[in-house]
Amino acid sequence: MDKNKHLYGFIINGDTHFDIAHKRLFRISILPAEQSIYFGTVSLNDNMVRLLILLFENHMNFNEAATKDEIFKKVWEVHNKTASSQRLWHTIKELRAKLSSIGLPQDLIVNDRGSGYYVGKYQVTPLFY
């Protein structure tokens, strides 16, 4: 990555925008059959933002799961926070609920038991400035 470029966010499946700086996801879907527009937005906490960035980067760069140890380190420990399986489970549960509230599928974040978490079969495109 060019050192002059900074990660701004991601586009998920062409209609959902992840704005890192403002810690929010918003989705704008145009439904041609009903000739209507759907708009939804949710705010995320710092742990959710860091987790999504890690999962999206692993998805784009390596197409592999982020291990629990990697998640613990990059989401919590590097930021002087205490990591635990319970905290990870709770963060994933809350994040999935927020994703669902704006119409994103539950399988956007997949748990591969024994391997870690990964992004399902969805298109994720990084945005830079």
UniProtKB/TrEMBL annotation:
Example GO biological process: phosphorelay signal transduction system
Signal peptide annotation: none
GO MF annotation terms: DNA binding
Pfam families cross-referenced by the UniProt entry: Trans_reg_C (PF00486)
Keyword DNA-binding listed: yes
Assigned keywords, A-Z: DNA-binding
Domain OmpR/PhoB-type residues, every copy: 42-118
Protein name: Helix-turn-helix domain-containing protein
Organism: Intestinirhabdus alba
